[in-house]
UniProtKB/TrEMBL annotation:
InterPro entries: HemX. The chain crosses the membrane at residues 33-56. This is Homolog of E. coli HemX protein. Coiled coil: none annotated. Residues 13-27 have a biased composition (Polar residues). It holds the Pfam family HemX. Residues 1-27 are annotated as: Disordered. Keywords: Membrane, Transmembrane, Transmembrane helix. PANTHER family: PROTEIN HEMX (PTHR38043). It comes from Candidatus Nitrotoga fabula.
Length: 364
C-alpha cells in the first residue's frame, strides 16, 4: 500500500515452476511494467481509474446542470419580464376598470334616483289619469241624465252611457268593475224602453212649420176661380164693334151681380192681416206640439196636432197636393205614440262620484 516494491524471491533452478519455465518473459515496456506491478498496485490503479471516471462524469453532469440551470434562469428571467409587463397591463386594466366601475356606480345611483322619481311620477300620473277618466265618465253620465230630463232623448242618453262604459273598459282596471256594473244596469233600463224616434218626429214638425207659408187658402182658390169664370176670352178672329161693346157690358153686369146659395156654410173672407195671424197661430200650435214631444206629454201633443189639423181643413185648400200632404203628415204624427216612462239613471252617476271621493281620501 506504501508503493514500495518488494525484492523478488530467489528462484532455484531445481525448484522452478514448470509453467514459469514454459512461459516466455515479456519483451515490451508496457508488459514489463505490468509484470513488475503487484496485485495491490493493479487494484489501486483500477480504483483510481474508476474514481477518475466518476469524477469526470460528475463534472460533465455538473456542467450540464449548470447549463440547464442557466437556461432555466434565462427563461425565468424572460418570464419574469413578461410577467412584469403583463402585471403592468393588468394593473392598468384594473385602474381603468376601477374608473369605469366608479362611473357605473355614479350612473347607477343616478338611474336609481331617476327610477324613484319616475315611479313617483308614474304613481302621480296614474292617479291623475284615473281622476281624469272618472271626471270624463261623470260628465258623460251627467249628459245622459240631462238628455233624459230635459229633452227625453233616450237615444242620446244611451249613447252617452255606452261611451262612458267604453271609456272605463279601455282602462282595463279591476277597480272599475263595480262602476261598469252600475252603468250596464242603467243601459239595460234604457234598452227596454219603447223605441220613440224623437229626432225624426221633431224634424217632421219643423218641415210642416216651414210649409205653412206656402199652403193655399180656400178663399184664394175661390177668388181665382171666380175671376177665371167671369173672364171672357175674345174670339180669335176680327170682332165687330157692337159685339165688343155688348161683351164688355155683359162682363160688367156679371161683376156687379152675383148669384150664390146663401144656405151654404162657407167661411167669410179673411183680410190679409188675419191670414197672416192664421198662419202664425198654426205655427204656434205645431211649436207647442214640439215642446210637448220633448217633454213626452202625449195629451198636449195630440191636442195641438188635432187643432192644427182642424184649422188646416177649415181654412186651407186640402184638395191641392200641398194640402193633402200636409194633412197626411199631421195625421201620421198624431198617430205616433210618445208616451214613455223615463227611468232613473242616477245610480251610475252616484257610484262614480262616491268612487272619486274615496280616491281623494286615499290620496290625502
Amino acid at each position: 500500500m506504501t508503493g514500495q516494491a518488494f525484492p523478488p524471491k530467489p528462484t532455484h533452478p531445481a525448484t522452478s515452476d514448470p509453467l514459469q519455465e514454459g512461459s516466455t518473459a515479456p519483451t515490451t515496456p508496457a508488459g514489463k511494467f505490468l509484470a513488475s506491478l503487484s496485485i495491490q498496485q493493479i487494484l489501486l490503479a483500477v480504483i483510481l481509474a474508476v474514481f477518475l471516471w466518476q469524477w469526470f462524469d460528475a463534472h460533465l453532469q455538473l456542467n450540464d446542470m449548470q447549463k440547464d440551470l442557466a437556461r432555466r434562469l434565462a427563461d425565468m428571467d424572460g418570464n419574469n419580464k413578461a410577467n412584469q409587463v403583463l402585471t403592468k397591463q393588468i394593473q392598468e386594466s384594473m385602474r381603468e376598470l376601477s374608473v369605469k366601475v366608479s362611473v357605473l356606480e355614479t350612473h347607477s345611483a343616478e338611474a336609481q334616483s331617476q327610477r324613484a322619481a319616475l315611479e313617483s311620477f308614474y304613481q302621480d300620473l296614474t292617479e291623475s289619469r284615473d281622476e281624469t277618466v272618472l271626471a270624463e265618465v261623470e260628465q258623460m253620465l251627467m249628459i245622459a241624465g240631462q238628455q233624459l230630463q230635459l229633452s227625453a232623448n233616450v237615444k242620446a242618453a244611451l249613447i252617452a252611457l255606452q261611451q262612458a262604459d267604453d271609456r272605463l273598459k279601455r282602462m282595463d282596471r279591476a277597480a272599475f268593475n263595480e262602476l261598469r256594473r252600475a252603468i250596464s244596469h242603467d243601459i239595460d233600463k234604457l234598452r227596454t224602453l219603447p223605441d220613440v224616434d224623437v229626432q225624426d218626429i221633431n224634424f217632421r214638425l219643423d218641415n210642416l212649420i216651414e210649409k205653412i207659408d206656402s199652403l193655399p187658402l180656400i178663399q184664394d182658390i175661390a177668388h181665382a176661380s171666380l175671376e177665371k169664370e167671369i173672364t171672357i176670352v175674345p174670339p180669335a178672329g176680327e170682332e165687330n164693334t157692337w159685339k165688343k161693346l155688348i161683351r164688355e157690358m155683359w162682363g160688367d153686369i156679371k161683376r156687379f151681380v152675383r148669384i150664390e146659395n146663401m144656405y151654404k156654410n162657407e167661411l167669410p173672407l179673411l183680410p190679409p192681416a188675419q191670414s197672416f195671424f192664421l198662419r202664425e197661430n198654426l205655427k204656434l200650435r205645431l211649436l207647442s206640439a214640439r215642446l210637448a214631444l220633448l217633454s213626452h206629454d202625449e195629451a198636449i201633443y195630440k191636442h195641438d196636432l188635432q187643432t192644427a189639423k182642424k184649422w188646416v181643413e177649415q181654412y186651407f185648400d186640402i184638395t191641392s197636393t200641398a194640402g193633402k200632404l200636409f194633412v197626411f203628415n199631421l195625421q201620421s204624427l198624431w198617430e205616433s205614440s210618445i208616451d214613455i216612462e223615463l227611468p232613473d239613471v242616477s245610480a251610475s252617476l252616484e257610484a262614480v262620484r262616491n268612487y272619486r271621493s274615496s280616491l281623494g281620501k286615499v290620496s290625502r
